[in-house]
Amino acid sequence: MQRIVILNPKGGSGKTTISTNLASYFATQGDRPVLIDNDPQGSSSRWLKKRKPHQAFIHGIAAFERNSSMTRAWQMRIPLEAVHVIVDTPAAIPPQQMPEITRDADAIIVPVLPSDIDIHAFSKCIADLLLIAKVRRDENRIGVVANRVRRSTIVYQSLMRFLDTLRIPVITTLRDSQNYVRAAELGVGLYEMKNHLVLQDLEDWKPLLKWLNAKAPTWRPIVNENPENAA
User: Fold this and answer.
1) Helix or strand (DSSP H, E) at 3
2) Based on the structure, what is the number of domains in the chain?
3) How many other CB atoms are found less than 10 A from the CB of residue 177?
4) Would strands 142-149 and 107-112 be described as parallel, antiparallel, or unpaired?
5) What is the DSSP pairing of strand 170-175 with strand 107-112?
6) What's the confidence (pLDDT) of residue 49?
7) Does residue 159 lie in a domain region?
8) Could you list the residue range(s) of the whole structural domain that residue 102 is in?
9) Residue 84: which of 205, 6, 24, 3 has the closest Cα?
10) Distance of alpha carbon 58 from alpha carbon 213, whole angstroms
């Protein structure tokens, strides 16, 4: 089982977008992934509720809820058949909680937007991961995703120069695309939309899937270069 944590204490960085699209992708591959929603806003859980019965199955856990009718251990149980567990974390995570959140993570994806405010918050997040959570660079568990970028802008170029100084790999850049907005509204992911509509966005995802594939069980590859899109 591969545990993927999407983390950035800065709100609006794209954690839910990445979490839901990863869950959707793995589901289309028949892996029956688990999507854990730790965010009190419940965005991932709302997305799951929009999905139709005929769509590929994703097991959802609303970890932010407290259910008095069951034990916490039962509420948080992971199905035995789960191959991938995606954890959508909340904003404003206290640094002291990072060791627990990241302890069992095979991959930690940190999205960042191209703005001065986001770059500052991201810098502190990386420092907390290295110094407080004790995630070592040589473990290669942290991967950066530059999100909602427009490559021709000055602020994007500034972001990439800054990221280059951190010695943390920038796995991919996701363009500022309305396809993500439409996918969120419909309860689908890019890999469930018509190929010709999302072809450019799918190209952005290939490096991220390849990076995750390197950490997945060798008997179960997760990268499909030419998926068949049903919707």
Assistant:
1) strand 2-6
2) 1
3) 15
4) parallel
5) unpaired
6) 96
7) no
8) 2-111+175-213
9) 3
10) 19
